[in-house]
Write a structure and sequence with these properties.
single chain, about 200 residues, mainly alpha, about 60% helix, about 10% strand, disordered N terminus
Length: about 200
């Protein structure tokens, strides 16, 4: 968005931050940063340090406005979405859904799978065991979000989608193991409660 003009498309991080300010506003950059850092998606956690510059860009583009706010001796600002910000958020959401939003996302695990041939057979199977374990950990991180947002149907859709994506990745790793002659693992994962 920066340097791209008022009608420009928001980046994913800009759209997410604008959406959080809309949903949770008025709020502080710190509150948004805390929300993203607490996300089970490590992509957002790594973006936490760039939140303050995003707020500056959104404010410069008149998509959010600041109101002075003090908590004790500490002074800061609360932000809320402006009418222009709400329009930008609606454009970012779509419809139509952008090709980028629907495209196959980058996946470091899938990329590494392409080069497993460089490893010995035992190392390949160890790679799959490690990947399975990490994916199961991710599923365990997502489950509390499903409970936390049970009252919010839109947030629940997000957490249900995350859990479904992680389960699909786990199924893919199991299939890769079978393709490489690995015995089915005894999974320690617990099945999540029914999404319904």
């Amino acid at each position: 968005m920066a340097g791209r003009g008022r009608g420009a498309t928001l980046s994913e991080l800009e759209g997410c931050v604008l959406g959080l300010v809309w949903r949770d506003g008025p709020c502080t950059p710190y509150a948004v940063r805390r929300e993203l850092r607490g996300s089970p998606n490590p992509h957002w956690g790594h973006s936490a340090g760039s939140i303050y510059p995003v707020f500056r860009r959104l404010e410069k583009a008149s998509l959010i406005s600041a109101e002075p706010h003090a908590t004790g001796a500490r002074k800061g600002f609360h932000y809320r979405v402006t009418a222009a910000g709400r329009r930008a958020l609606r454009r970012w959401l779509g419809p139509p859904v952008s090709e980028l939003s629907a495209a196959l996302p980058p996946d470091p695990l899938r990329t590494r799978m392409a080069f497993l041939g460089v490893l010995e057979k035992t190392e390949q199977l160890a790679f799959l065991d490690s990947a399975r374990s990490r994916i199961e950990e991710q599923l365990e991180r997502v489950d509390p979000y499903r409970t936390r947002f049970a009252h919010d149907p839109h947030a629940r859709l997000v957490s249900d989608g995350a859990a479904a994506t992680i389960r699909t990745r786990l199924d893919w790793i199991h299939a890769a193991g079978r393709a490489l002659g690995q015995r089915p693992p005894r999974s320690s994962r617990k099945e999540p409660p029914d999404a319904g």
